[in-house]
Design a protein that fits this description.
Layout: H1 4-10, E1 36-37, H2 40-47, E2 52-53, H3 72-89, E3 94-98, E4 106-109, E5 120-124, H4 125-134, H5 139-157, H6 160-164, H7 171-191, H8 198-206, H9 221-237, H10 242-254
Parallel strand pairs: 1-4, 3-5
Antiparallel strand pairs: 2-3, 4-5
Length: about 260
């Protein structure tokens, strides 16, 4: 297995930028860590925020995109990157931005906001700006997108309840998504061996928490890096497919 440092230095992606769509302020969302799932209570509040959604990922045309960087070429690069994640995980979520003025975040929900999709991924516009400043190459953004798409895959599989059974927090579900996001980045590394995702690795570490008794506990920094490393190894080291990775992720978190 690759060392933790090797994982941080070698994972990769191709997203470079996206657009920000300002929205009106609304009531605060409940406190939670990044990479969260939308509760029923929070869902209504997010919907009040003037979300700017494209159509189905993988079925976008330029006229359908209601978000922009002001650079059509960059917008197309983002959509191509989203399509790669969608194709890898065999899910088609809606994707868009919302106003995260009261706490930077990204969310996944099984709620279908766009017809003929598997759910919805929402990215906070402020979080996006922060991550792009932190990592202008886009790696930290794509890490987060892959994590959220992995949640959609879990919802679609019907196995979320199995992972949560008897657990005091969502830790297993979050580490499952970390594993699959690591798998995705390993697959990209096999395709483009010369590119690095050092800052994405740093972002994974920074996303951990030590709120052990909190229902929103996602895992410690070491937990999250280890899960991503294990997923990375499945694709980059072992060249296994996505369905195998999903089962490996499930077995990995059930053992923790």
């Amino acid at each position: 297995m690759l060392s933790r440092r090797a994982l941080i230095l070698t994972m990769t992606c191709t997203c470079t930028a996206s657009g920000l769509v300002p929205a009106a302020h609304a009531k605060s969302l409940s406190r939670s860590s990044r990479g969260c799932q939308v509760s029923d209570a929070d869902f209504g509040r997010i919907r009040e925020r003037g979300m700017a959604l494209g159509r189905n990922v993988g079925d976008l045309t330029e006229s359908d995109i209601r978000r922009t960087t002001g650079n059509a070429g960059m917008d197309r690069m983002l959509d191509q990157a989203l399509k790669r994640v969608s194709d890898t995980f065999a899910v088609i979520p809606g994707f868009g931005f919302y106003d995260d003025h009261d706490g930077e975040n990204a969310w996944a929900t099984s709620r279908v906001l766009l017809q003929r999709t598997d759910g919805t991924v929402l990215f906070g516009d402020r979080m996006f700006s922060t991550l792009m400043r932190f990592d202008p190459g886009g790696g930290a953004v794509m890490w987060t997108i892959a994590h959220e798409f992995a949640h959609i895959w879990l919802y679609k599989s019907g196995q979320k309840a199995r992972l949560l059974a008897g657990q005091p927090s969502v830790r297993r579900v979050e580490l499952h998504a970390d594993f699959l996001a690591g798998f995705y980045l390993g697959a990209r590394k096999r395709e483009q061996s010369g590119i690095s995702l050092f800052n994405a690795g740093r972002d994974i570490w920074n996303s951990g928490d030590t709120l052990y008794n909190d229902p929103s506990h996602h895992g410690t920094p070491a937990d999250r890096i280890a899960a991503a490393e294990a997923g990375f190894q499945v694709s980059y080291g072992e060249n296994r497919g996505a369905k195998e990775a999903f089962e490996a992720a499930t077995q990995y978190v059930l053992g923790r």
